[in-house]
Structures
1.
Amino acid sequence: MSLIPFDDRDGVIWFDGKLIPWRDAKIHVLTHGLHYGSCVFEGERSYDGQIFRCTDHSVRLAKSAALMDMEFPWGPEKIDAAKKETLRVNNIVDGYIRAVAWRGSEQMGVSAQATKTHLAIACWTWPSYFSPEKRENGISLRTSHWRKPSPDTAPVHAKAAGLYMIGTMSKHAAEKDGFDDALMLDYRGQVAEATGANLFAVENGVLKTPIPDCFLNGLTRQTVIGLAKDFGIPFEETVIMPEDLGKFSEIFVTGSAAEVMAVGRIDQKTYTVGPITRKLRLAYENLVRGKPLTAGDA
Ligand SMILES: Cc1ncc(COP(=O)(O)O)c(C=O)c1O
């Protein structure tokens, strides 16, 4: 795989209030966020130059920082404006925006009362997260042995960098076995989500999704639930156990990066890309580009 390293690209990055050359957007190795995981972030997409649910992402970033007890002096208007400016100056139309906030180098140790919060915003052109073949047939998930922690163990509703170490280990293990991503169970053994996307399932025409009580209630998840309601698709937020997975006719995942992505396989069980997945995927693709839902979608 040939990758362009993320620290060696052209463009500008918004860094603590200023747009600076991409390669100069650096932090010191003795940064609290790096050592102790005091770091929160957002991942969002722009379509035709417009950031989808821009303010909702800015609000969530501030909320994640608050959940992590981090000072956060930027209001949503300021973050929105910074994201839009960064996108415009970099000339990105269909892209991905990454805002990240972290505790700095002012203090090193578990206690970090003297640290300042820093904020950076980068963006780049990013087509689909998965290949066209995966889009057509669905991605494969392998159940991880790592579990999503309980709400009294970790700040599970924050989009906190530290929570992703479980995701990275799980995804690597899945990839080693030839799967695209991991299916995460929670601390009770209930089906939770993928490593960077929420999960939906269809049973007898009813759309089901796990209750987001120990993982991120994704903005895409909320958008898709709204679309399902608009279409009159019966919908239920419910407990899904691993043994329920055999009953479902369709599975898909949702996320700002993944968008609406069909799942073709979980462990040994295969699924086809069914009508509800297709309908919601198309409706989502239209919505993010500001196109109205058409009769064909419904
Ligand atoms: C762990 C996890 N769950 C769910 C989601 C989906 O959230 P959203 O739809 O807000 O991007 C993401 C992506 O941000 C994620 O990283």
2.
Amino acid sequence: MNDTLSNSAVLSAYRARTPGSAALAREAASLFPSGITHDSRHLEPYGVYVARAAGPHKWDVDGNRYVDYYGGHGALLLGHGHPAVTAAVAAALAEGTHFGASHPRELAWARAVQRLVPSAERVRFTSSGTEATLMAVRLSRAFTGRPVLLRFQGHFHGWHDHMAAGYTNHYDGSATPGVLAEVAAQSILIPPNDLPALKAALARGDIAAAILEPTGSSFGQVPIDAAFLHELRRLTEEAGTLLIMDEVVTGFRASKGGAQAAYGVRPDLCSFAKILAGGLPGAAVAGRKDVLDRLDFAVAARTGQEKIQHQGTFNANPISAAAGTAALTTIAETDAAEAAAAIGAALRDAVNAVFAEEAVGWGMYGTFSGFHTFLGAPGVTVQPGAFVPETQPMAVLKSQPAVLSHKLRLALLVNGVDTNGRIGGFVSATHTADDVAHTAAAFREAVRMLRAEGELVVRS
Ligand SMILES: Cc1ncc(COP(=O)(O)O)c(C=O)c1O
């Protein structure tokens, strides 16, 4: 473990509250690499082990309650255990988990997608967002006959070989361990919001598709300029390059119809996961019929073009289909996306007020129902609580002071708030004003704990 933590009162408080998690983490160390099953759950000395969850809250195995901003990695716009979703899952479970056949629930699920996402002329379900972006890339290459994928530095699209570089490192697109250099060479990465770089890339004439997180990397940690998004649409169309909007996070969250509806930009293809399946595993690629036709047997026979093969044991499994249909129907018929965004804005305001009152040069920012916390960077002065991310380059926004953010994360957990490792997260439609007040108080207490052990540069 990091030596700078060994004498930390924050760490002692964390350990004192979480002995049950510590015991499970010891067992996990002999089962999983690093004792975890997803890189973002890596936390020293160990993460909390959660026993149950309801609405916006979860409880660890030691009985501590957390206001949850992990939100099932963004899947839980409707909070934990939404009654419509759990009832739909129970009904589907009683009828069988896998039929090895088409089934009515997959039709209802796809119709629920089409109801909210007009660009989804056709839908193909997969099991994960990673698979959805993989299929979107393959469709694009097959449809255009071009080899190269255009990506934006810092944008995340899952962990398959075409997406492994450029999220937290390898911004030059060079191969990461285990990925063939020849494969990595067929993706090019450019900085977000860089119009000249975009034009130069498209001028190559060999770009099959451009893919992006439409509100910016990690749900707007590095925001995408709306004007850039519109230009990207115009220029890709002009260049015969497909535009893939990766709506795995933004889908049904940025608005009922995702970022594409919020910004009025129609992609050729889009990928969905998370909210799509109501908190269960499930994802989809959707978009133009003529592009998804590359998966169609009859079209292949008619045109003589070899079809793209696609299997997947759990594609459109009935349980996920039931959960997803219930979640999407609820989102269509309520103001869940707008309500979560409103609570997100209230949270950002409340925490920024704390930063201002505590005279700490940090800022909480974000769009829709997301938030990110900027904890300072060398040479960057922030008016406490009034941070404007658009004024900063990606390198500044993406780099957080490691020890400080680590201690802050632990201090927030000690005070009953669970964020991601970047001190960001997702607000659900079930978070309330009480949760906002609790979170603001937790940030205040965390700031004071860090100040007490000399971690803060105080502005006067
Ligand atoms: C924007 C984006 N695309 C793709 C993925 C990959 O989805 P999955 O984790 O379901 O493979 C994620 C996951 O967090 C994501 O945030």
